[in-house]
Design a protein that fits this description.
Elements (H helix, E strand, L loop, with lengths): L5 E5 L5 H10 L5 E5 L11 H16 L5 E4 L2 H14 L4 E2 L2 H11 L4 E6 L1 H6 L1 H9 L4 E6 L3 H6 L6 H16 L4 E5 L7 H8 L4 E3 L1 H15 L11 E5 L3 H12 L5 E3 L1 E2 L3 E2 L1
Helix pairs in contact: 1-10, 2-3, 4-6, 4-10, 8-9
């Protein structure tokens, strides 16, 4: 079972931020990554749609014989983590709880900011988890709908990215937060812009790092951590592979080929 791959799913390329960390910290692990580009943005979908999409994709990844699955998408985690855990017997890991635990430990003034998609913000998954652990902490949230398409088109430091970031971060700067959770895996690729605007004294919490550490812990506990060899990787998209490959090449710094997965009553390759 140690040799079996780990599945990752996201609405697009944001989850590659988690994959990059896994490749750095667990380079021996095999990876099966699924990007649902055709149905993005997830942040504008309702919960029943998101649960349906998540379960569909995990079924697809199970056909690739995965031993665990990371929902490498904050929106899908907020909507679908509990139903997915109830539905499948393999370990299912989300990105919200690991990020919250780190943010709560690191804030000094007890004022935490969250930037996320519309669904994640309105769903209140982050504030609820923070308040569960540390009720005394004040939480300030804002949703950033234009960040995802900017990342998907590789505009990580473009002038328009700076422009929209200034607007999104303005209320959080005013709130005097000292810790900011990047509540969408896409936002990991905008850390340079976000840090420059929010101020370098503000701690940025990247779910990719914390989720990878949680994944390693779970695999170790279950005795299924792969400790030898070099990992192999496969990538799938419901979008156009050639379009996805252009941005993925910048993110992963390689020329991995993507295969198209078609969405119908189910998912097939």
């Amino acid at each position: 079972m140690k040799e079996q791959p780990i599945g990752f799913l996201d609405s697009g390329l944001g989850g590659l931020s988690v994959v990059k960390e896994v490749k750095r910290l667990l380079p021996q692990e095999n990876i099966e990554y699924f990007a649902d580009n055709q149905r993005q943005p997830y942040g504008e979908k309702n919960q029943s749609e998101l649960i349906k999409y998540t379960l569909q994709i995990i079924y697809f990844l199970l056909k690739k014989n995965i031993k665990a699955c990371v929902i490498a998408c904050n929106t899908a985690t907020a909507a679908s983590l509990i139903p997915a855990k109830e539905h499948f017997s393999i370990p299912i890991i989300g990105v919200i709880q690991p990020a919250v635990e780190d943010a709560v430990k690191r804030t000094s003034n007890k004022r935490i900011g969250i930037i996320a998609t519309e669904f994640t913000t309105k769903n209140q998954a982050y504030p609820q988890e923070i308040k569960r652990i540390a009720p005394e902490i004040e939480v300030f949230s804002n949703f950033c709908p234009e960040f995802v398409p900017l990342v998907e088109t590789g505009k990580f430091t473009a002038p328009e990215t700076y422009q929209v970031a200034r607007e999104y971060l303005k209320p959080l700067k005013k709130a005097r937060i000292d810790t900011l959770i990047l509540g969408c895996t896409h936002y990991s690729f905008l850390k340079k812009v976000i840090s420059e605007i929010i101020g370098q004294e503000v701690i940025l919490i990247d779910p990719a790092v914390n989720t990878t550490l949680e994944l390693k812990k779970i695999l170790s506990q279950k005795g299924i951590l792969k400790e030898r060899g070099k990992g192999e990787e496969n990538y799938y998209t419901t979008g156009l592979p050639e379009k996805v490959e252009r941005t993925a090449k910048i993110i992963l710094n390689d020329n991995k080929k993507w295969r198209q997965a078609k969405v119908g009553s189910g998912l097939n390759i």
